[in-house]
Amino acid sequence: MNYPSFFEIAKDFKVIMLDSYGVVKNHKGLIVGIDKTIDWIKSEGKTFRLLTNDASRSQNQQKESLAKLGLPGIELHEIVTSGMMAKQFLEQKITEGRIAYLGTENSAEYILQSGLQHVAVADVDLEDIDDISAFVFLDDEGFDWNTDINKTVNLLRKKTMPVILANSDRFYPVSRNDVAVATGGIAKLVESMLHKKFIHFGKPDSQMFMYAYEGLIEELGEIDKKDILMVGDTLETDILGGNKFGVQTMLVLSGNTREEKVNLNISSSGIIPDFLCKSVVE
Amino acid sequence: MNYPSFFEIAKDFKVIMLDSYGVVKNHKGLIVGIDKTIDWIKSEGKTFRLLTNDASRSQNQQKESLAKLGLPGIELHEIVTSGMMAKQFLEQKITEGRIAYLGTENSAEYILQSGLQHVAVADVDLEDIDDISAFVFLDDEGFDWNTDINKTVNLLRKKTMPVILANSDRFYPVSRNDVAVATGGIAKLVESMLHKKFIHFGKPDSQMFMYAYEGLIEELGEIDKKDILMVGDTLETDILGGNKFGVQTMLVLSGNTREEKVNLNISSSGIIPDFLCKSVVE
Amino acid sequence: MNYPSFFEIAKDFKVIMLDSYGVVKNHKGLIVGIDKTIDWIKSEGKTFRLLTNDASRSQNQQKESLAKLGLPGIELHEIVTSGMMAKQFLEQKITEGRIAYLGTENSAEYILQSGLQHVAVADVDLEDIDDISAFVFLDDEGFDWNTDINKTVNLLRKKTMPVILANSDRFYPVSRNDVAVATGGIAKLVESMLHKKFIHFGKPDSQMFMYAYEGLIEELGEIDKKDILMVGDTLETDILGGNKFGVQTMLVLSGNTREEKVNLNISSSGIIPDFLCKSVVE
Amino acid sequence: MNYPSFFEIAKDFKVIMLDSYGVVKNHKGLIVGIDKTIDWIKSEGKTFRLLTNDASRSQNQQKESLAKLGLPGIELHEIVTSGMMAKQFLEQKITEGRIAYLGTENSAEYILQSGLQHVAVADVDLEDIDDISAFVFLDDEGFDWNTDINKTVNLLRKKTMPVILANSDRFYPVSRNDVAVATGGIAKLVESMLHKKFIHFGKPDSQMFMYAYEGLIEELGEIDKKDILMVGDTLETDILGGNKFGVQTMLVLSGNTREEKVNLNISSSGIIPDFLCKSVVE
Questions:
Q1: Alpha-carbon distance values, C137 to B145, C101, C103 (Å)
Q2: Considering the domain C6-53+204-277 in this protein, what is its CATH number?
């Protein structure tokens, strides 16, 4: 099948928002040619934003990670992550006690830097939890699955507290064909055991779009939503979120959604992108 | 048990957001004394907003309905409804074809006034649906349940289109003890038959809060989220939404949440309000 | 694609169990040629059973209904319905009070003939429910959807009691392309409003298979499960139930499962029939 | 509150079926006094059965494990496990290829002894899976959670096959207050990632009750279901299963269900035991 060129469509928009995984990079590294696409966006005077549900890195780490992969030109203010939303929530709502987490020390440093103490669930003493005031699911690594998932379940059975999920993706690709359980999958397991719903951040929730939109208004003054294009590889997050927020949406086939299933996926989900392209590099 | 007075807590905030059903009114009419509370909010120089998941009335109709009940002082710009979010979505994303709906002609007039034609599902000819471009669940009345719910299912099996739910509440109180299935319950039934997720608007989604927040900035200039109090009677919508958006939250016991179950509800849901009061009138 | 003949496969089995809707009949009446298939089964000395999730008719009514359609040769003891399982449950477990129901007087007569009084939900006085001891979802007709579904919700909110669902199918076909919400869909709506799980009867539960199996042993003496073939048109009920019970299973394409989707349905459900045929008449 | 004595009620029944975990034993070992209860059952001439969802041990191992704990008198034919149901399924339906599993070599030996080869998922080569014909979730140990759960997900994404869950409990108690994720919880995680439903065995499914019932008929000749008492500590498995099968049911408070929550649990689940006792030893 023939798909229109990304550039042909993107040229009519003032703001281009790209999802990261599956659009800008994949399990092998950068999508080949993405540097030229970013250059084109900027040389055309368009405004660029990266909207990612990746919560495991700070804005700085995202920037450095992309630079290391070979994409040096992304600026801090162009990056919006679901981790930033979770961080904001914690700063605004959790004002005392210690915050327990499942994940790496590294993510904890970034998300939990609100002045409160944080403690890996592995280091929690289940007999001494009175001052634990919130729990955050951060990454799928940095802990021992068997013991620490069990410990998480027991901590949350013993004490009611806000439980935050900074990235609700259930799995992520590790190679062309294989996936790995992501932190959202682990959280789902714990939710199903406790019969609770945790507080989820990230697309398709409107919050990240709003955050980006407010930044755009500060930078550009008024901006019409019709002038914004959101590009993603996943119907349920990027496209649903963009549709709901009211911007134009483009689904690309360089990530989660396979060409041979795209029509079935659209019709079975009822989530309809405004545009459909192979990738953002052609 | 003793609860603090609403006024004692509210006096420290600059903006007071109230949910409507269960806070301002209930099945019998206005909560007794609500007029004095609204007067107090305004006389203290605080800014007021009504945030309601009721999608069946336009802002104007909401205003008139409250006036008729005995609360004349609410102004148009103080009202934010989930129907406004759905309306906005339809205007921005559905630009051609006819919009089919389940509900009253009255709601349809209000939500679907984007220049496109709208058609009650009862009047849809299932052999002639090529130009139907979206479907909206509006109310739980204005149609014949048996025939029109079945017709909705068959329409949506025949054609993929965006399906919008302007109010996801599954039921609403009709007396002190009784409830009725709301449009969100009917949509849930159809979702379960089609194995699809529709596009939901309303609290706890951040969108209504953002919409209100943007209006506040226009009206007041900068406003700190810490100066905003959201008051509601439902943990899963008002309090979760407010918590996630980052404002302070107060649960009141004048509606959905009963005093004898409030602690159980909080601990089983993990959704924790910052304040707990009997109502906004004491 | 070429499918093997039903007869070619069935000839190696001693017992043939057929699902009713989608195998023996459809919305237009009997599947053309089904009379010859039934004749063949019996003339070959095989034992026949009809296993249906239809709970709205008694064995007698099922027999008469098939005779009226043109299939007079089915005997009472060859019919096993999910209604019989529900009836048995009520007889064994509900020994006092009145049984309330949603459905037709006709089904109520059949299922609730245990000596206890039964009362249509429309006739229940919600102020006088102390002696109501169970609730049964019977059919999708015989009541006013809007008022009686709401009344059901309120009855079940007011009093805890066993709630029985004699047929959990969520919809049934009314024409080649259209479906109607079945009683299982209505029960699902009520379950989702009350956050409860009702007691479901019918395939894929092992109970109907066991009931049939016990009858077979009485009739035939010992019978090896490997000599039994279950034929159905639905993976999730007929095939899953048969697989789990340990008999051989055949999926036919004359009902719910369409030829163009059969491979997708099998691979997405993981429910694998032992045989796949077009229908039982070729 | 006062509860009737187990003996007072049990004396009127001919057959006593006990769940194992929470009724006969708990995390500390045997329930104190259980030996006297079993002696009483037998000395009164009643027939005894143990019905357990534990699939990790063979009948022999169950018997030995109970003997080691101090309960030597349980005979092989008195033990019915969900693992036996899964084993039967595999023998009847999976006749070729290799069976992959998640769990211990020990459980695999027991459940998969049908002559087919079995292979731990850790030892599966994902490039060489053509002959893998089924997958079984056996235990929550015997493997590396992180790597082997991911490997399970990828195996099941690559190939459609029957997936069997011999024990659907999501967690089990490890101390008075703490629980651990059970194999059913892990399977649930994988189900949610693959959007599939696996084949579950164990209570509340009727199959184990039927199996036990058939054995009773062989042993005793005719037996009326009204003469059978099923005793368990869990509403959703023991009591629902027993109710549905048509025997009398007793909930005891020595395991999963706590005294202070029992009324809430019954009313919120709608699953109503015929009797309620503290334990089977008083």
A1: 17, 6, 7
A2: 3.40.50.1000
